[in-house]
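Apologies for my clumsy wording, but could you write out the amino acids of a protein and the tokens describing how it folds?
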Amino acid sequence: MSKYYIIAGEASGDLHGSNLMRGLYAEDPGADICFWGGSLMDSVYREHQDGTGLVRDYKDGAVIGFTQILLRWRSFARRFSDCTKDIQEWKPDVVILIDYPGFNFKVAEFAHKAGFKVFYYIAPKVWASRERRVSKLKAFVDKLFIVFPFEIPYFESKGVDFIYKGNPLIDAIDESTALKESREEYLGRTGLPDKPSIALLAGSRAGEIGSMMPVFMEFADLMHSMPEYSDFQFVVAAAPSREMSDYSGYVGGREYVHVLFGESYAVMRNSVAAVVNSGTASLECALIGTPQVVAYRGSAINYMIAKSIIKVKYISLGNLILDRACFRELLQDYFTPENVLDEVRRILLDREYRDRMLEGYAGIRESLGGKGASAAVAKAMIQEMQRR
């Protein structure tokens, strides 16, 4: 029996952490797990252990952007202090960090210097920006577990010790009950009318919602005002960690806009097109098969800083995997209601364009490998612990 201390700081980390935990319990039935995460990880924990494994919910500290991090530095410092104290007292056999580099790199340094084994699952995007962090991976992480094929040559060239077992999103999507139900079941369960839907995904953080939702609503107004689309509805796939108050001020009294919580996969699957905030949701949308346009807008200072340090051609993982623009990215000043409307209409009206995008989606799925990535990573982690 081994003790695992897992830290996930975002909604995507909670998803991947929950699947990893399933794999750890399967390979090590006596596993004792303590974690920072969310409801998905907590649900898996309660299936296998009694007690309180959840130390802190990720939604208590998720922020986006350089300025927000600076403003909440004191909170970060308190959380870091609580985390290090908890690790010292609990004395795990391994500390497993899932993405979330701003916080997890500090934990990695602490844990390594304190003599704990450190695994990093889902590599920080050092290939896109802040490459100096590669030296921290080498110095403070015993084994890196990567999830994208294009990361293999990069980390090989940097001399980072890593393991690649495929991408866990394949499992998360293919095993989702929301994708196995019929459209009739979906409509009956959610109470939505049987109308063509456009999915709107603004992200899970307050900053993302605040920057994306106003443009989303202007786009919805524009499209709804056109006679040929007056019967369309717009479904906001709200993050399960948020509340209706995070969206109601933007939605107002629009009867053609609906908000569903924790239904991202079902909303994507039952929509004819999606407008997606850059991030994991864009890759999920590609794997589910819904034509999309990616959008992003941050504060002027955050965008200026990001533009000066980001080295990759695309911000979307799907486009990065293919190394070409499978779907369009509307960034900062290009993210306007009019541009979103033009792209969504192109998706709906240009069959050749839509088919090329779906062909690209097939290439993305193929490049990520088959099923079983989460279980394979869990097994590899246990073997690595035994080997060392």
Summary: The first helix runs from residue 11 to 27. The CA atoms of residues 326 and 360 lie 6 Å apart. The mean pLDDT is 91.
